[in-house]
Amino acid sequence: MRLELLGLSKRYPGCVANDAVSLKVEAGEIHAILGENGAGKSTLMKMIYGVVKPDEGQMLWNNKEVEIKGPAHARQLGMGMVFQHFSLFETLTVAENIALYLDPSELGSMAALRQHIEQVANEYGLAINPDRKVGSLSVGEQQRVEIIRCLIQDIQLLILDEPTAVLTPAEAEHLIKVLKQLAAKGCSILFISHKLHEVNALCDRATVLRAGKVTGSCVPRDTSPAEMARLMLGDGLTLTKAFEPGPSGDVLLQLKDIEVPPTDHFAIHLRQLNLSLRRGEIIGLAGVAGNGQDELVDLLNGELSATKGQVLLAGEPIQRLGVQQRRHKGMAVVPADRIGRGAVATMSLSENNLLTGCITHGAKAGLIDWKVVSARAERIISHYKVKTSGKTEMAGSLSGGNLQKFILGREIEQAPQVLVCFHPTWGVDVGAANLIHQQLIKLRDQGAAILLLSEDLDELYLLSDRLGALCAGQLSPVAPKSEVSLERLGQWMAGQFDAQHDKETCHAD
Amino acid sequence: MRIEKRLQPSRAMVLLSPVLALVLTLIAGALLFKMLGHPAGLSLYNYFINPISDWYGVSELLVKVTPLLLCAIGLMLCFKGKVWNIGAEGQFIFAALVSGYVSLQLMAVEGFWVLPVIIVAGALAGMAWAAIAALLKTHFQASEILTTIMLNYIALNLLLWGVHGPLKDPDGYNFPESALFADHTLLPLLSEDYRVTVAIYIALLMLAVVWFVLSKSIFGFQIRVMGESAGAAKFAGYKNRLLVWSLLLFSGAMAGVAAVSEVNGPVGQLIPTLNLGYGYAAIIVVFMGRMHPIGILIASFLLGLTYVGGEMVQIEQGMPKSIVGLFQGMLLFFLLACDLLIQYRLVLPGFGPIRLPSDRTKQVAS
């Protein structure tokens, strides 16, 4: 037995994060931890990795009782962990970040380390330049660094907190292969994911947590995703089918020959972007992280300006307008980073509602009407089922999914004509994702135009009316989703825009 | 004993930290007095109670509070927006020089407009000095922490040049001082018996204005967002340059008015030693006052007391002048140390974490 937990409990003031959790992980087993946001998964992982000390309970490591003194101790024992919220220094390079993580004795020279990084990166197909500053990496690339950092040591247990959330399907598939390889070598893997089909494809066993307690376990191979979702949510949830495309109207948002040169060394050059987004439709853009998504969202939000081309909103050029002027005209944006972009961690939900909400409500002649702002915040909380102690709670203390619901609610409540939505359900549990999807469809049906950037293909196929992909700052053709097969979308994501027909060359794996 | 991170910042500790810092300062001060060979109790009494034991003493405290509060009001807005203006001192000195010059020019001119012109001249001079730092920050990405500090020394040397050169009183027996200002260029006193001027009303009025701006206006909200999260401010489209300029200009203006309150108030002329460090002490006021209007009002009295108390122990017990700086330094030092307890808490072996009754409990998400 690699790892055994016996009655592990962790209490925080006012809340039991884990209540007598027991589970077993065999050597070489891939074990999934399932649960909604707030179910206590991350706390459990942090206890195993020694970040958080359990209040009660025992932990056996290779059949011997251990008390993990801290992450360094856990690492010595042979554990590695990829956190959901990355623990990287943005001002340091990839290699420096990894060097910091290693024990001085195993570090050796930086040149050797760089080589080692490249070797691991190549082995697992996680391309990364060891000399890039982490701050300049996209979310997806940063996660690659986290994963490589764990794989660089010999590990017996790898803990992954939603590792595939920001990977493309191809990358995720690759990672799954990597994990299977690792497991075959005897490394055990603890895997938190919201993507049930992945758990299904990858994991040997799954333990389901709800409200800090183990509510069930199953063998994913023998259990359908719908059943697992039911175990997690505790009610008869039915997974929604793809939404039907709606009738689309006139063009609301148009990009014409947009050219945006990179603003720093690592930014992506947006080239020759042409796109017409119609009233009442959702265009989904797929793409591997770091292919120009950040730049495109900044461009549309008004933070980045194009050197060539036009951005038209309902026929009117807006490329010279600032963020707030665009919002006045009916633009809204849900950014990829919730904390630090979409919300201010140290401010209350009411105040976070005002962050972009002041455009439409709560402000007259530069003065704030806090009553209106609070009422709106309360409405968003109840309407979008945000789990929180109230409108005065700090945004930073909400779980990721709940904060995402709040941010999405705030943007939708602006009644936008055009909504740009980046990673709307990244790290969000099934229940919250469902709600977010329904709200987006509702907004579309009310006549708004939505541009959806996501790396979750299921989500793209579920929501979009038309599909396209971004690759190296260029836009693929955009076509109705019924005409875009998974293979074709994959080709687009790889930059093969001229692939005319779907060749029947599916990979055997 | 160990220190562990709190699940969320303690609100109680935010308020308790300055009190704790004051207590620690008093204890350290008592030890210091003891080591200097003075009776600790008497010295503390002379420092903190004796100065305000009569109405004249209280009025003298208000004389110190006025420029402190004016400087602190401007700095509070700056610090809320994480614009680290350390240059209130330089803005104060430059404004003193300019408003002093204007006062000397208007010696022979009577009129109701003279005083307003002097006040505006002071405010504009403070703004001009702060504008240098704003320009360097917004156009050349120079850290305002460094530029404002450096500008303090430049301003001081300009003042010294002024009082040693063109502004020296021709009838002043070659002392490096300007002529005494004419009465009509001095701020009106609240009462003939005391040195407090109407500037204290200006300070209180501006305090109320700033409070209103911070709590009720979109502008104040944007300042706070910029301070808490520059990325979110950028995402929401708040104009960073405009905010930085506004904050620096406003705090420059407030330091300028503070200079007028001092030079055209109790001092009444330009002297080389008119800067008693109000611009620096105001930084401590803002942090002691938790960047809240009521807080900085209270803290400006405390820091004002370090000045009048320092004078008292110099007179009564012959202590050195540097005692003022020592007490102000200790206050800031202990405050910054105690502020650790906002994010962290002490855990005593065998007792568990030290809890404050008002520590808010909350739902913890996984």
UniProtKB/TrEMBL annotation, chain A:
Q: What is its main location?
A: membrane
The name on file for this protein is ABC transporter ATP-binding protein
Note the SUPFAM superfamilies from the entry: P-loop containing nucleoside triphosphate hydrolases
Translocase as UniProt keyword: yes
Q: Where in the cell is it found?
A: Cell membrane
Which membrane topology term applies here? Peripheral membrane protein
Residue ranges of the ABC transporter domain? 3-236, 253-497
Give the matching CDD domains: ABC_Carb_Monos_I, ABC_Carb_Monos_II
| Annotated GO CC locations | plasma membrane
InterPro entries with a match to the protein in the record:
AAA+_ATPase, ABC_carbohydrate_import_ATPase, ABC_transporter-like_ATP-bd, ABC_transporter-like_CS, P-loop_NTPase
Keywords, in A-Z order: ATP-binding, Cell membrane, Membrane, Nucleotide-binding, Repeat, Sugar transport, Translocase, Transport
An MF annotation (GO) of this entry: ATP binding
Record organism = Neiella marina
**At the top level of its lineage, which domain of life is listed?**
Bacteria
UniProtKB/TrEMBL annotation, chain B:
Cellular component annotations (GO), alphabetically ordered? plasma membrane
Q: Where in the cell is it found?
A: Cell inner membrane
Record-annotated membrane-spanning stretches: 12-35, 55-79, 91-108, 114-136, 145-163, 198-221, 242-261, 267-287, 294-310, 322-342
| Pfam families xrefs | BPD_transp_2 (PF02653)
Do the record's keywords include Membrane?
Answer: yes
InterPro entries for this protein? ABC_transp_permease
Its placement in the membrane is given as: Multi-pass membrane protein
One GO term in the molecular function aspect is: transmembrane transporter activity
Its protein name is ABC transporter permease
Q: Does the keyword Disulfide bond apply?
A: no
Where does the source fall among the domains of life? Bacteria
Lineage per the UniProt record? Bacteria, Pseudomonadati, Pseudomonadota, Gammaproteobacteria, Alteromonadales
Could you list this entry's UniProt keywords, alphabetically sorted. Cell membrane, Membrane, Transmembrane, Transmembrane helix
